[in-house]
């Protein structure tokens, strides 16, 4: 092994340990794992039963981790694992290679529990477009149309979406119906809902308690920790900024927020939760709505 790559592996080991991986337990992390073609995977991450879940391909810091994508994919195919991490000690990229076209930069490796949860979701996931929209939550045609567009884009792998809606026409209900559809399809397991004021957080919590009775939500208060047993976290941007560093990049699957707050969160927490799909809601004046079609639009990749 080249010395510079050995230095990178020291950092990678530390990054794995930071997310709860026991690098001294061969049932959790395997090093230089031999493959059927005679090659070796740098690291293999396993679940609590020792089943392989992900390959980690390590490179020296001067190499772009994305350059190792083809090599890591060959390892993943032999091991029949769905997840790949590419790392050089400074940058980490995650790749759900059977679904996504390219590796994506993330701030951290996923924790063991987040990686296991993501693997379990893949097994039971169904096409969310086949799940009926709950018309007890949303009754209007434009809400149904918007949810259909969002669901289709989500299923096709789009990671950022924008919804334009006027004040007072059911943004929270539409979000609740969209979230419920994804939950019922087992397409997501944890959702982050960001608002700009505590009063809106309370209103959202009350609305979700009414419409999403099977999916518990809570308000994250400043100074508190995430409640892992709850499915939906509702919080202000300020409260989230104070705690996001304590969790892996794989903790949330979906982030919904006002568009300006979603952009602010990405600025203050760069690359921290990019694995989550982001849906931004932009409030527009009713006069603007009358001049153009209300609906959804893609925003970025």
What does this entry look like structurally?
The protein has 301 residues and is an alpha/beta fold. The chain contains 9 helices and 13 strands. The protein has helices at residues 3-18, 69-79, 112-124, 141-155, 171-184, 198-211, 237-241, 259-268, 286-291; strands at 29-34, 40-46, 52-58, 83-87, 92-96, 104-106, 160-166, 191-195, 217-219, 232-236, 254-258, 277-284, 295-298. The strands form 2 sheets. Strands 9-10-8-11-12-7-13 form a 7-stranded mixed beta sheet. It has a 6-stranded mixed beta sheet with strand order 1-2-3-4-5-6, sandwiched between helices.
Q: How many domains make up the 3D coordinates? A: 2
Q: Main sheet, how many strands, which sense, barrel? A: 7 strands, mixed
Query: What gross morphology would you assign?
Result: elongated
CATH superfamily of the largest domain: P-loop containing nucleotide triphosphate hydrolases
What is the radius of gyration? 20 Å
Query: What helical percentage do the residues reach?
Result: 25-40%
Cα(first) to Cα(last) distance is 37 Å
CATH topology of the largest domain: Rossmann fold
Which architecture of the largest domain does the CATH hierarchy give at level 2? 3-Layer(aba) Sandwich
Uncertain regions spanning at least 5 consecutive residues: 268-275, 283-295
CATH uppermost class of the largest domain: Alpha Beta
Look at the helices and sheets and give the structural class: alpha/beta
